Amino acid sequence: MREKNIYEKIAEKYNTTPEEVRREMQIAIDTGFDNPDPAVQEEWKKMTLKGERPTPEEVINYAVKKTKRKIKI
């Protein structure tokens, strides 16, 4: 499933727009990224980032890859 489709499906379920879904995801990511807990920071370091902070697309891709490794697809 492509990121755009994910945003659309979530938006439809919660009666909002895909843009709002992405915006809220970014807010949640930024909040988590700012968490000073060393264990949390170690998890963020495992991600490949294009910028200073992860984007929703980067988090989705990371989660998919991590899930695939766990179930060995």
TrEMBL record:
Matching SUPFAM superfamilies: C-terminal effector domain of the bipartite response regulators
GO molecular function, one term: DNA-binding transcription factor activity
InterPro entries to which the protein is assigned, alphabetical: Sig_transdc_resp-reg_C-effctor (IPR016032), Spo0A_C (IPR014879), WH-like_DNA-bd_sf (IPR036388)
Domain Sporulation initiation factor Spo0A C-terminal: 4-65
GO-annotated biological processes: regulation of sporulation resulting in formation of a cellular spore
Cellular component per GO, a single term: cytoplasm
Protein's name in the database: Sporulation initiation factor Spo0A C-terminal domain-containing protein
The species this protein was found in: Anaerobutyricum hallii DSM 3353
